[in-house]
Structure prediction request, 478 residues.
Amino acid sequence: MEIFSTTIIYILLFLTTLVYYSISKKQIPIRKQKQIPKLPPGSMGLPYIGETLQLYHKDPNIFFSDKQKRYGEIFKTHILGCKCVMLASPEASRFVLVTNADLFKPTYPKSKETMIGPWALFFHRGDYHYRLRKLVLSSLSPDPIRKFIPGIESIAISTLDSLAADKNKVVSIFRGMKKFSFEVGILAIFGNLKKQYKEELKKNYFIMEKGYNSFPTNLPGTSYHKALMARKRLDQILEEVICERKEKKMVENDLLGNLLSLKNDELSDDQIADNVIGVLFAAQDTTASALTWILKYLHDHPKIFEAVKAEQKEIYMCNEKGNKSLTWTQTRNMPLTYKVILESLRMASIVSFTFREAVVDVEYNGYLIPKGWKVMPLFRNIHHNPEFFSEPQKFDPHRFEVAPKPNTYMPFGNGAHSCPGNELARLEMLILIHHLVNRLKWEIVSSRDTIQYSPFPIPYNGLPARFWNEPDNEELCN
Ligand code: HEM
Prediction:
């Protein structure tokens, strides 16, 4: 009986407490409860098309910077059929790309994913992405890439020779740089690939690339259809290369070798092929666009050009006028040239922004980023913010004598998807500049200050120029 009455007392106590809490909770004034986050400021434009027309009508950089001026560092818009939140502050970029990266996933249009290959690492996250990224990083880090220096030099020299083959001929700098970065990409992925394979890869890759940016209609005769066909042929060529390596039990220390080295065929041939094409794709236009801007900035700033030339001439003379190959240590000791690269990457901001998609509702700084919305960290806006880079429109490599504030300089992105090819990109740019300033002179033919997008920003018309050989210099180093 006693146990029974104690139990009753406990139940009553429990119920009273429960009723008290539920009544008292209802009485908490709304203003004391947690604020419901609201959408960031901004405008969503017209139904369906949003603000896509404004984006294309203006230069995208101007579109984003106008918005930032009007709404601040976080704002919403609706472009290319997507509801987006744009982030123009270093903290917000870090929130999305680094500290809360698991709340966001990479996102690309389906047509682009089909073209590159759905298994390419940049479409993924989690374990698959982690394992692949480790392999790619281990193939493109300083240690493995130093062996490519002589190969990259010979590609640089032959690119420059063909640019300067006819002094009177106007050539597109961007096109020349694309050939260079493609060949370097092939070298890093396949080592010394047979000429026949290289030619076939090149031919089909260029057809694929043409269709990549075209309207995705898969009808015979369209660029998109031709590109899909070329992509299939690329798979066949890669299958042959992989088969040959497997049959001959070739163990190579290049990216393909590393992808094949996983035990128990952990990666299928399709997965390997998609990643080979993916890396080649990520490597080519980015580096070519960066180099084109570097040549423009050097041309437009004669004093900096002369100082870079003096730095490079000294190394050239020590290497018996280029008869000896550059060493890794020499490539790490080009301080001014390196700062020119850093400043060109800031000024041009080749990858002006990136896309992610919120996988859940996310709250940032009191604002709601709804599930399914895209978020876009705007690298270019950050690189051009006078708070972080004084006189941002001025080309001033010396500003890099002092390291930029954390998370304000992201030409290669940030976090789990940041660029694993940045060391290779740096190496190939240094090598090309070394041979360019020592061997050639050039004159830009049209210097219209218009920017074109292909899809990365490039100077108008690929920067048409004339190149010719620099007369030999007699001094040798002591
Ligand atoms: C100047 C040249 C380059 C620039 C400016 C650049 C820039 C970038 C940026 C900003 C990202 C991150 C994109 C994001 O977060 O969504 C990225 C990713 C990537 N880059 Fe580069 N890149 C360059 C050259 C290269 C080269 C030479 C390679 C390879 C040889 C390469 C391979 C990749 C790959 C595979 C990814 C995807 C990484 C991942 O998703 O984990 N890039 N790059």
